[in-house]
Amino acid sequence: MLDQLLQFFITGITVGSVYALVGLGFAIIYNASDVVNFSQGEFVMIGAMSAVTLSTMGTPLILAMFGAVIVTMLVGMSLYKFAIKPAAGASVVSTIIITIGASIFLRGAALLVWGKDFYGFPAFSGEDPIYLGSATMLPQNLWVIGVTAVLVIIVLWFFNHTLLGKAVIACSCNKVAAQLVGINVTRMLLLSYGLSAMLGAMAGILVAPITFTSYDAGIMLGLKGFSAAILGGMGNPLGAIAGGLLLGIMESLGAGFISSGYKDAIAFTIILLVLFVRPSGLFGKKSQERV
Amino acid sequence: MSLIEIKHLEKSFGGVTAIGDLSFQVDKGIVYSVIGPNGAGKTTLFNMLCGFYRPDQGEIMFSSDENYPLHQMDTDKIAASGISRTFQNLQIFFNMTALENVMVGCHLQSSCNFIQAMFRTLSVQREERQVHQQALDALTFCGLQSLATETADSLPYGDLKRLEIARALASKPKMILLDEPAAGLNDTETKEMRELLRRICDSGVTVLLVEHNMELVMNVSDQLLVLNFGSLLAQGTPEQIRDNPEVIQAYLGGEL
Amino acid sequence: MIGGMKRLGGFYGISVVFLLLPVIFPDNYYIGVVGAFAGLHIILAVGLNLLIGYCGQISLGHAAFFGIGAYSSAILTTRYSLDPWLAMFAGMALVFVIANIIARPVLKLKGHYLAMATLGFGIIVNIILVQSQNLTGGPDGMGDIPVLSLFGWTIDTDIRWYYVIAIVALLTIWFALNIIQSRPGRAIRAVHGSEFAAQMMGINTSKTKVNVFVFSAVLASLAGSLFAHQQSFVSPDSFSFFFSIELVTMVVLGGMASTYGAIFGAILLTYLPELLVIFEDYEMLIFGGILMGVMIFMPQGLYVGVSQKVAQFYKNRKPAQKQAVSEA
Fold this sequence. Notes:
Chain A has helices at 2-33, 40-56, 61-84, 92-114, 139-161, 163-173, 175-180, 185-207, 218-232, 237-257, 263-277; strands spanning 130-132, 135-137. Chain A is mainly alpha-helical. Chain B has 2 domains: 1-82 and 173-256, Rossmann fold; 91-162, no CATH class. In chain B, the strands form 2 sheets. Chain B has a 6-stranded mixed sheet, sandwiched between helices. The radius of gyration of chain B is 19 Å and the shape is globular.
């Protein structure tokens, strides 16, 4: 039982890392522009698919990854410039529909470029399993967990210890005040969307060797990333990461010990129960409306 | 005859005492004002009176047709007992017209339920006509009858303040809580507000007022309560308060 | 003025159009078949609009109630040989209970958290439908659902289904229009405007929200049962998260807090995919582009946006008749 637990834990943290990256992307865009970007999952898909394409064209792995990230960042920034910025001031529900439209649009584009096929990607450093007690781990799992950890540290360092990062936070607190101290809000928002897209693309690239990717692979990932961000408290980056990891582990344990068909139902039920007890997520701030 | 009796009321928010051991009475049929510096606890007091917060200690007894323990009741039940209110930050229903806003105020004066509404029974049609008229009367009382069909989000601030009052009056309350009704109004509007407040009181509704505009308060009030740091500093008629040295020191700055 | 003709003028107009279309265009696929689908979507969208548009809540899981209604009818008529109308009623009763149970805790949440909770609920129901093979036939669905008949008149042709659905849709629209202009309707809109003020007017805001939620859920269940008998086959694919999103899109695209907007959105989103089929592989791309375009340039919704512009046009052109127009 115990070694089963370890196995599920490893799978859970791997999957959870992906959810954490997607959730972090949600949190960053939400913080910057008060928008829940339902096309976040498509960033993951585009990153993975672009990397596959570049790699099959003969580009070495690192460059393919780099290229894929650049492509996705351009997509993310275009999303802001052409879909979100022109609709500034629209209601929450309207903006949700815009991002849903964007998600459908991106999937439609992916369908044209890549068709309905599934695509694979070679593992970064081979497929020889690593043994941890009686649990097995692929080297790719280590890559996923490791790179996610590095990315998270970089992002947190960026927001907490660089002037640029603080400028972005300033924009999310009060756009007008930020402008008055000389911050170019549009540039900061472009940066946020680009950063969010980068994280999504990395998540896609990291996990492509483990699960095949296709034009609609982004949907469920987007949903899970959103759930992770909500579970942790919408807008809290650390919360999104914690939420992602928790979600991955819950899913894995549920699949392992109860039923793999019901694993998503179990995960969502737990999220619902958490929300009933803590209506602003695990680490979210309770907003007090003042009358 | 006291309408509201407040005994040893206390409320803290995470270590900060907003209201500390407050006790006072409000008599029926008067204009009773609560004044004090910002942060003195006035809005907290109002929020406890209408059930948005529960006090940590103490009682609020409302004696109209029955004795109601307001400190233990939910807001909608408090409203049903005969208390209505306006808000410091306007809580107008911007998604409706001025008339519809006031028609919501008639909620307690009408009774049609969901099923009856679905089928638009004869009693529903009758009730709609009644509510329409009652709302129009409340608007007229506040001088807003010409704005009935305008959507609320197109109305200027001064009219919205009066609209909130019209809406609060439509439920035919025994007591109305007005939270800074003159805030942001110019001199003419303030004068009109003063007349409106007097008319409300003359129509038999007890008025409990929170206000910063001293001229308005001194002119329109029958009784005053001065709060400072959540405690009662002084109580009495406007003349008594005006001459009270502690009040002058704490709040009025020595000049009136 | 709340005169009957003035208030329901649009409704009578729509009724005439709905009822006469198959007469004017007989044997037309786009009217008889697609029109019936549009009718089901109208029932769903009008109900959902009461919750999202008028009450200001959000539900990203409404397909679940559509599905529970459909599967209740399917299971009770095929496995337990229950009379189809009783099965439909049983489905609505089941949804009534389920919606009441989950509405109370869920509607205490706000904004994105509420969206998440309804989303999660929808997905959970969908997974249950897929996984309970013995009961629901699993991902392959259930077929051989018996026909629905009314006093011996079997509803088994396209045209008969069109009229049955049209009548239920018109009834739904009538209910919605009646509710909006009434005490409960104003309570619903007040909850959206300001929960604090609504409570202060004596409105029990959580009971109001729960009532609207349950009402729209039961309507969805009714539509689901009709759907099951019309198709004589159900599968979980029709009751997925995508359909929930499609329903919300219908409401928002047409214009929220507008019953006519919801009708317009339902019709538009039923016919648009039919029209876009000609673009084959480009269908998804164009559809996504249209959604984005409409919401960016007319965020208040197509129907509401256009009717506001029309009203503005008339207001500017005829100042003498301004009084009459502003009452419209």
